[in-house]
Write a sequence for this structure.
């Protein structure tokens, strides 16, 4: 069944609106955060532990990520950071700890209830340099050349037009800026019996694309120095697999290279103008 982009967005907004009203424990107990008929698939299979990360704020953690992009983002004091799909603000507050009071953090999310929750969290923390804007990743409410760094955590797989999303990421980054994005990708064709189950992962993996296609979308947007900073296999327990695959298929799945992966990808927007020529001006390289 083909689903239109507008239908996908409506479904995501509805689901994440429900998630915004739940606790971390409630969200972690079901595959999609909000109840979606697939509670046998635990979101903890993907989530990373933030509790020892500087800037972590428990009330902003809804347990929906699949990586720690801020850990790899090389955020410096004074940087402007944009978080795509900022949810309740978890990665924004971690980024704020790195960029400090002299920097700025902008979270963008398309779900009104998430924006409200994130703003409330920022107010409790007294952060006046963290703001949250309602908008879509494919049409970011941010001016050109704004950010030094862009981060995102398990959100691009929910975006119907990934080519457009990475083009927008490129637009809002300053020349010489970079991103670090954690997301879900696929390697190989999942067994037919598992495909329906996989589609029920956080948002649920139905929007995930092949690993190489994902990197190709980044290249097409104009990014350079693309690096996979972390590649983590999402191990699905046999007690879940047996509901969808035969014993023979489970053995074949475990011994093949086919699977669901959480990756963290880094890429840079080429420096232009002054940034690109800074080392080539008269006397600079003497």
């Amino acid at each position: 069944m083909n689903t239109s982009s507008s239908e996908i967005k409506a479904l995501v907004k509805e689901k994440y609106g429900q998630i915004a009203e739940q606790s971390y424990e409630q969200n972690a107990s079901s595959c999609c955060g909000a109840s979606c008929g697939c509670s046998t698939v635990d979101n903890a299979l993907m989530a990373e532990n933030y509790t020892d990360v500087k800037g972590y704020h428990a009330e902003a953690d809804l347990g929906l990520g699949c990586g720690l992009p801020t850990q790899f983002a090389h955020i410096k004091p004074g940087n402007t950071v944009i978080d795509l799909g900022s949810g309740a603000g978890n990665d924004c507050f971690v980024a704020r700890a790195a960029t400090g009071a002299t920097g700025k953090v902008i979270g963008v999310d398309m779900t009104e209830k998430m924006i409200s929750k994130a703003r409330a969290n920022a107010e409790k923390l007294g952060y006046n340099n963290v703001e949250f804007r309602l908008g879509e990743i494919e049409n970011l409410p941010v001016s050109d050349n704004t950010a030094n760094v862009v981060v995102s955590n398990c959100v691009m797989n929910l975006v119907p037009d990934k080519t457009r999303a990475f083009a927008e990421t490129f637009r809002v980054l300053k020349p010489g800026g970079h991103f670090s994005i954690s997301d879900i990708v696929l390697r190989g064709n999942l067994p037919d019996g598992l495909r329906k189950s996989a589609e029920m992962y956080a948002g649920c993996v139905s929007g995930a694309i092949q690993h190489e296609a994902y990197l190709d979308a980044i290249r097409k947007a104009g990014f350079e120095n693309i690096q996979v900073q972390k590649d983590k296999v999402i191990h699905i327990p046999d007690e879940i697999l047996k509901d969808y695959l035969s014993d023979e298929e489970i053995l074949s799945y475990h011994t093949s290279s086919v699977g669901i992966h959480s990756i963290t990808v880094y890429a840079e927007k080429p420096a232009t103008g002054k940034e690109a020529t800074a080392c080539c001006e008269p006397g600079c390289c003497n």
In short: Residues 167 and 221 are 5 Å apart (CA to CA). The domain at 5-269 is CATH 3.40.50.150 (Rossmann fold). The chain has one domain: 5-269. Confidence is low (pLDDT under 50) at residues 28-42, 273-286.
